[in-house]
Structures
1.
Amino acid sequence: MTRLLRSDLCRLLRSRAFAATNALFFALGCVFYCLAGVNLSRLGAEDFVPQASEYMFLPVMYIGLALAVFCPFFAGSDYAFGTIRNKLAVGCGRAEIYLSYLILTFTAGMSFWCAQLLAAVIVGYFGTVGPLVFSALTRPLIKLAEAIALTLFWSTLSVFITVLAADKAASLVAGISAFAVITAAGVHVYAELSRLSRPEYAGLYPAVKRVYGILGTVIPSAAELEVISPKSNLLPVHVIAAICLAAAITLLGLLLFSRKNIR
Amino acid sequence: MEYVLTANSIYKNYGKFRALSGLTMKVPKGSIYGLVGKNGAGKTTLIRIICGLQSPSLGEYSLYGADSRSKKIVRARRRMGAVVETPSVYLDMSAEDNLKQQYRILGMPSFEGIDELLGLVGLESAGKKKAKNFSLGMKQRLGIAVALCGSPDFLVLDEPVNGLDPQGIVEIRELILRLNRERNITVLISSHILDELSRLATHYGFIDGGRMIKEISAEELDAACRKCCRIEVSDIRAAARVLDSLNLEYSVVSDAEADIYARPNITSLTAALSAEGCELLSVTEKDESLESYFIGLVGRQQ
């Protein structure tokens, strides 16, 4: 496992897709904190901090898309170049290969996030909002845990699709489609939950509300909306749900990959 | 004889299609084993199974005595290298970086030996050039170099000369022979360029319809493919007497035919046969190549 990780880490560090996505996230961080600077002058420092914090957690909303694009270029290239055969022929286990992809895709996801945070700190501190940027950084740890768990979920999904599709283009299309479907479902559930929690709906549709409540917890993209919302109830159950989903997808992926015919 | 690989009644199904049906084979240590078969005969499927890319539906094989279903197979695989179909190299890396990458996968403590490997396959001057800019021959040689990382003693090559120009074919042939002779590497090589294979192989396995039709050594094949003159006569007993008296090596093929393993003087042969009251009906020169032997073998099976 260590030797595979070492080899794939070297490949990750020299990957253009990895460098380009990091640069993109850094650029997004710069843009968001320029916008934060504009908002600071409009809102004043007191109202500004929660919003600035939202910018910090924004990547969790689109990291799934980034990983759906990045993973086929990283793990998928092993299929495209046929180099996965070199690994299997010299006795690397299939579980080792799968987990190595997963660990490095998750590492890449966290790296994208860090790139955006770094940009926020640099642009925020030295440019637009000054020391207030550090106030925005001090959010409850549970939010950070949620964001990490959701990044883990998207990593497992991207690796699952890439490894089983065994084709760069097909996994790219399937990954983006999966992201779009899950995001649309999450937005729908979040919108319904917001609607049903208005005073005029109090006491109405309790069963529907419960179903949406469960879906809102389980569907990662609905949880993401809660992560970035400053008013959300931060539930550790989001973290547990995301980790359980990630574990289930990984177990299924390992099972299917162990039986897959490689060409 | 010691065998590197033995396959015992391997079956492989893809849905309803049966790619291998009870294939059995033995690859002797130190040999260059040529796997001969038509397209779709099951050569690549067999190689994929041996390399661990796919599992057999039924049957088992052993590599260096390690059973394919045991955990020891992982250790045994460390002793082999493979190039399956296309050379498996990172196209966005140089030759040296590709080898370093394989060294890391193998968990080698240092990059010692990379220069020697590059020299061995003639890529020492490739420098920083990325593999995507290599010619097909260079990619093929790089693929072999990657397979040679970790000093394996069993090399599996699937169609290594496919798509190469004559110069490239010669280079790959010389490389395989050098690896076999100098490093005593056992090579399993599949190809349908039979003429090329006949210049390399010390053993052959003829495969058709997912079955091993025949396994034969190069010496046995040479004997089977000996140049001869086939004569057709009216009286085979009389012909045998004449051939004995002329001291010619021959074998009787049928009631009317015999193969003479020499170039006889047709005039004196005709005269001698005529003196025995035997008529010479026809003389044909037979020069059976690996190709005609294979076609004959496959034809007989069908």
2.
Amino acid sequence: MVFWISAALLTVGATLLVLLPLTRRVREPVSDNQYDVEVYRDQLLELDADEQRGLIDHISGEQARAEIGRRLLKSAKAAEADKAVVRPQKSAMREWLTLATVLAIPLISWGIYTKIGSPDLPAQPLAERLSRPPDQNTPAELIARAEAHLTLNPDDGQGWEVLAPIYLRIGRPADAVTAYQNAIRLNGDSVQRQLGLGEAMTAAADGKVTPEAEAVFKHALQLDPKDMRAQFFIIDGWMQQGKLTEARDLIRKLLVEAPADVPWREQAQAALTRLDQEISGDAPDVSDVEKAGPDASQVEAAAGMSSQDRAQMIENMVAGLAEKLKQSPDDVEGWERLVRSYVVLNRPNDAIEALARAKKVLSADKIARLDGVAEDLGLKGELGDPEKD
Amino acid sequence: MTVELGHFALVLALALSMVQAVLPVLGARRNDDRMMAVATPAAFTVFALIALSFAVLTSAYVLSDFSVQNVFENSHSQKPLLYKFTGVWGNHEGSMLLWVLILSFFSALVAFFGNNLPPALKANVLGVQAWIGTAFLLFIVATSNPFARINPAPIEGRDLNPILQDIGLAIHPPMLYLGYVGFSVCFSFAVAALIDGRIDAAWARWVRPWTLAAWLFLTGGIAMGSYWAYYELGWGGWWFWDPVENASFMPWLAGTALLHSALVMEKRSALKIWTILLAILTFSLSLLGTFLVRSGVLTSVHTFATDPGRGLFILAILVLFIGGSLALFAWRAQTLEPGGLFQPISREGALVFNNLFLTTAAATVLIGTLYPLLLESLTGEKISVGAPFFNLTFGPLMIPLLAAVPFGPLLAWKRGDILAVAQRLMLAFFIALLAVAVVLYQTSASGVLAAFGIGLAVWLMLGALTDLALKAGIGKTSVHVMLQRVVGLPRSAFGTTFAHFGLGVTLMGIVCTSTFATESVLVMKPGDTVAAGGYTLRFDRIDPVKASNYNEDQGRFTILNSAGREVTDLLSSKRYFPVRKMQTTEAGIKTFLFSQLYVSLGDPGKDGGVVVRVWWKPWVTLIWLGAVVMMVGGGLSLLDRRLRIGAPAKARTLKARVAA
């Protein structure tokens, strides 16, 4: 409301200021040529002054005086003639224009403003927003308030502790790093804080576990050697750095040590298989599989562990996958992986059988894709038509 | 609420501007004094409304009101207070608002001081100002509204481009705009004269100070921009022939020509039609500059936002005003009364010479700037017209012009005696030759160009002083009388001397820096030293520092003199701004008299060292000091409020002297 009143006052005021001259009589109008006459007169006076100051010598002064005099005479004559020009005091056009102006100023301004303005949106200076009661604040404002509080009380460890995970969640990892560092400095060392710090550092590096972050995770592990998250991050880091063997060994150790029903078992095993393949040169790329072939001795040498353990682990993994595909068979990638695993394990019959089973449940386009894989793996010839039943 | 009041004030200003654009001009055509009288209060009101609007936007910046999109996009609550102010125009929308604020301010000044103007002229001038204002206000409201709001408001802004977080932003754009927009007044006077079909006697008396003021600000704006680029971009260069720089340089060249031709017009009532054309061209180039920089045609630090809609709008404004005014000129120019006559060898003739060379130079820069753009838009081929083109075209044009500068002020009006003038300039000429010889002797054959450049600079400076000395009556009277006469000289005489002297100073700086600068790029480890310009620079260490909105790696250096004693320390740093994820270089600069040691920190090397670029820039500050001297000249001339009359030299002077 205050806004509309102010806007109306501005409009009325501005319109009046502009309209005033339209309704007021102008004092005796003067011809433009008369203004010229005045200028030339001033010039003549100035010329005298310059001559007295010695800026212009007498001869030049006379010349200039003659020139200006000629112009002055001409203008004076024109000014005399101008007296005959009619200057309208009353004019229908002016009256129309006055009316149009009175209407145009509010119409244009209010018309445009109501289209583009946001009259109901109050100004929101930051300081004022932050001083409102907390229950009226948005989450972002609450964070800003906490920040303001911490700027003034940088030794409030509890504050940093609360803010740090929030930063991490809203995608400000660099701030999260600072917050965790402060929390550790003020509240002391703890597994959770070190883990958070490491995680924030990793997020700040776009998911890369930097050597600094790895050191933090290792430190967390010293505090609690059983902590899984720290070990997973370390494994992740090793995989990024290409330390595949180390990564695989650690996964394997975790799998052996952990109870059978831990939720991460399946994932870890999948990672293990992938690592095994990569280490032996069996990257998921099919051509690589063909080139390298399932050379058990190589794999074993690279693995550096007993072949019995290794075979067992792989068997487990493959069996797990086969089981999973029984439960949810519409998974062409799963079938692909299974077939490949059988080929790698040198169990062609199982591979062919798996293909046949897959063809029963998959749609035509997915079968075509699987056929392509089979061909690449050299299974084509041995594969008969799928059983028809 | 207050934010929206500023928004409303802007729209109301647009409505009033439309009234101001129509009523006074119609009134002038119909000899209707009341309609003409609308112009004055309208100009005041529009200025007041835009000022209100600008103040509201500024307060939104200072109070970090992120419900205003413009503030959100270009500010940050932790930004230092100065940059909250300057950030207002550190973006497209805000800078356009500053543009119209200055335009309306100048209109208000014309309205305020224009009581002695013929009413029709005043009405037309303010009307034309309002045409420009209306076009730009429409542009702002339609495509670049600084008052667009966001609901709900974000809690933190995106910060200002770090390169702009500098004191330079407080000075460079306002000065440049004062220059650009100042020429709008000259333009409006020119178009008003064309509309009216007559050039009033007061015309030139009004146009010259406006030209001077605009020229003064533009000079300062360009010099400041150049110095800013020099220390902020970290390349050690002060002029790159970058299209954006050219965009400001073209109006300066045309404006300098206008300044001189307006001088002839005021003093001698000559060159009237040419002056009108120049006024139109100068402002057209200012508009073109605004267009090139604002439309996103050129990408550079100045391009805050690219939006084809804006580009088209500005292009339309450009076509309307440049095309319209030139068409009006073609149509109406012959109705104007031509000015007085003069002989080729005369002060007027010298000023025509100046005008020809300056406008040709401006045209050269224009071609060099626009040709690559046109070629790219027509054929898609990207070419770069860089320093070599301008050195080959602009340079040769400047040499005869600069060589002729000392002659100009010494020639008499209407008919001059070039031999007599040459005699008076003998001393300056010989000293300049001496300078050439000394430089050649010192630098051997390699410095031929430099020697002549320095000679030319000396010639300019001494020529300017010769003019002053002759006006004081050197050789004719005693020292005491001379001093008295110097004190009695009008300020405009000093203005000429200062401006021409400053030109020489700038040239001296340019020549010395371009030819004698040394550069070394090397990897330095703490304790390493490198020699530069008679000093030795030692790299001490790098300190990480955290400021409110950036982190900084401060490289600490110590400068040792030839005796190995520590003279001073030097700080060069790299700043990282996390909000924008941008890095800036803060060059470390130490000034020794006029020369500078310039250190720019590069990326860290592998083995703990850091890449450091070190320049020794002999006499580099003269480039900008010269500009300051020129500005002082312009200011002195501006302060001289006498009427200017140039007395013509009498024909057959000899005979007259004999007769006397």
3.
Amino acid sequence: MLDNLVLGFQTALTVENLLWCFLGVLLGTVIGLLPGLGSTTGVAVLLPLTFTLEPVTALIMLAGIYYGAQYGGTITSVLLSTPGEAASVVTTLDGYQMAKQGRAGAALAIAAIGSFIAAIISLALLMALAPPLATLALRFGPVENLAMMILGLVIVVSFQGGAFVRGALMAIVGLLLSTVGVATGSGEARFTFGSVDLLSGIPFVEVMIGLFALGEVFHQLRTGAEKPIRARFRDMMISRKEIAQSMPAIFRGSGIGFLLGMLPGAGSTLASFMSYGIERRVSRNRAGFGSGAIEGVASPESANNAAANANFVPTLALGIPGGATTAVLLGAFTIYGLQPGPLLFEQQPELVWGLLASFFIGNVLLLVLNLPLAPVFAQMLRLPYGYLYPLIILTSCVGAYSVSNNMFSVWVVLVFGVIGFVMKELNLPMAPLVLGLVLGPLFEKALVQTSAVGNGDLGIVFTHPIAVGILAFALALVTVPRLVGAVRGHVARSRADRRAGTREKSSIDT
Amino acid sequence: MTFSRDTARIAFSAVLAVVGAAAVVGGLGYGLTNDDGTVHTGFLPAVAGGAVLALALVDVAQSVRSARRAMPPGEPTSAGAGDAGSGAEDVDVLGRTASRRNRMLIVVLGIVLGAVLLVPLIGFLLSMGALMLAITLGVERMRVRSSILVVVIAIAVVWLVFGQLLGVPLPTGLLGLI
Amino acid sequence: MKSLPITALGLGLAATLALTACSSTGASAGGAFRPSNTTMTVPFSAGGGSDISGRTVAAGLEAATGVNVTTENREGGAGAVGYSYFLGQAGTDSHLLATETSLLTLPIAQDVEFDHTSFTPIAKFGDDYTLLVVRADSPYRTCADVVDAAGTDRVVAAVSGAVSLDEVVFSMVEKDQDVEFDRVPFESGGEVLAGLLAGQVDIASLNPSEAIGQIESGDFRALCAFAEERYEYEELADIPTAAEQGIDVAFAQFRGIIAPGGISDEAADYWIDVAGTFAESDEYTTYIEDNYLQPNVSYGDEFAEYLETASSDLETVFDK
């Protein structure tokens, strides 16, 4: 193990590799800044650039793009409420609030620090335990996945606190929207009304850009301009206290992220949502969540990055992609003439360990690059809103178009921009809708597979102990706080009546 | 918006209830299960639609109740409450009144719609440039020179990054310029 | 200072104008066809077999033509989205699509507006057969064992889609041997691999390139190849064909490129010509060998004939 690590660093630490890694991180960050272009597209689009390089160098650069793109998406989520990927949706919840309070620099810095710590933890786990972990992850079949999807939905709904009905409603509306398009299993077209564009379903990246980016623009127009944020440069820096305060969230996020990222399919989106949901339950600062809690940024960002690394567990150990981006990377392996599979560690130690070492280096570069840059990026908000929002509209439209080179995507963004505005005006939560939409196809796949494994009987779920355990946990999450709440609510009812006027606000803040 | 937020929310949830009901009907049409009892195309839409219908009705009921309770004091939760100015007048830092801002919102929506409709004619980048100019000059009344500068730089960056670096072929429209 | 970007933009505009003018006269002049910047559409997501094929061919054609060939993924609906979009490109002569067997299965099994005659066939670059694989601890030793077991017990097969290659192959075996497999649907070869590794299914039919890692490591055993002849690749040469075990099934997924319908003969001839150049190159050989394909090449009309025959074969498979 130690020999291998030395070998890896020897491979990765050449001047040439370092340069390409740096270039990858930089290009990745730029791509991540553009809404709609996430790490998957980034890696796929820049793949040809690497064809002339040595396989190790090429993979190192691609890994740099992968990390860079994730961090780039965080920057826009925090500054402009424009998530680049589904995994950064939750970051907008508290990150954007922090930016509005002039603490964008701190939010970006904690995201970089959290990501870095998560990366180091998860890389250590990946190096030490990838093969046994991969075997363990395989025990997660359709049945367990089904239970996991249900748990994910329950958690996102439960972090709406008091607005339970609305949260659940929005999550299931998301699920319902996801049923548009070709159905899993049967392959039949469903609710497409003859439209070719709808065959591939309602695209969640565009929905997300519409709801969060344009919805926020329209909402701001209506509520009126606020004073431009003129925080002093020093205030933009993160304080030592804030870092210490975020540490538990970072460690919890890393753990949850790594666990979920290991499972083929579940991925970073679920990881970021779940860790936020759990943090909201257990954090000391849980009351501050939703209105700019730094833990609310630290936790999903760590989870997100840990999951991204954990995605490499099945990828490297078994040759099975752990997520969309690792699928592209696996494709790249073949192009470089490498055979992914269980023998990769044995046959190509130099490559595997070189890659793992370069993940370390990539994360160090990312931190070195972004920690000082965080306050600089935050200065973007000094631009008067009159210039800023046309720019947001521009990048939203271009980003949407580039997702699938199609004007249909731009229309989706517009429609959901208006819907997002209405939802904001009505205080309806948008995050559950996005998660429902993202999980929908996975949920249906798990459902169809479970029923096929059980030969038509969904009751097979109860014969799988892991699945039963997960479902029991989900049930507890819904019922326990409600029971407690019901008892407390009974006492507080009379007081609440008097405060009916402020009900709107408190229902989302709790 | 002239009607209160509660009314709007009731209407929104009522629409969702209808959508849910339609999904149930559609799902039944596609078929819930195959011959061997495995899940078929209509299963998820029917189940999710049913749940949307039920939850939307609960939300309508809750909103109606809270609307009734809020009625006596006689102040419907005023539009734009929350983030906007504190107390005094509903005027933002740029001195714009609520009704002026609502007008601006509608104009911006119109501009965006118009720009997207223009894409097949004059191409993506030109219509986006026109959109930005229309907003910065027409709506926000920013200075002409700096507006043009911002727009030209933004469009040039998009052209460089998307068109050149990433090879995304942005539609050029009938005009076929850029 | 301030006028600099504007001047630059003006220059850029002028240059683009000049370029567009050039390419349009080139196309309308007739005779020698010159492509402008070309798009290669891949109807599946990045990272899959079609994507690798599309990107390799795009790189090869870029070298052969000297124009940019950009690859774009238009996934969805098991390929239906990409092909339907390509149908709308009729008459565009600088556009290609990395095609495979769903060009034939989609029109038969689903309600789509295209079939293989809607497009201009350019070239078929190779055939990808499948292997029937089981876990190393499976009781089955041959494909005949599997068929026997399916006659009496429940044998669960993984399929990667309703119109996918493995669905075709399993349906052919069912018809040929009069047995039935239960199916668990997955959405990609990678998922099927995971499902089989974890023992959620009993059998899977995978391309050699998808399963070779697990076969070499000893996790999987390949029982037979659904091909006319044994593979010549050293690693696969020991695998008997299905026919050797009394199952008369051989079916390959083809990989090739098509152009939109309604393009000029000059354009079609041009693309066939450069496809030929690519098929002679070292890159082509590497691609074929790395992916364990059979280098069965055909162009234009010959490719069209292949499509016609394969399509009628498939119709009998899906005719339930």
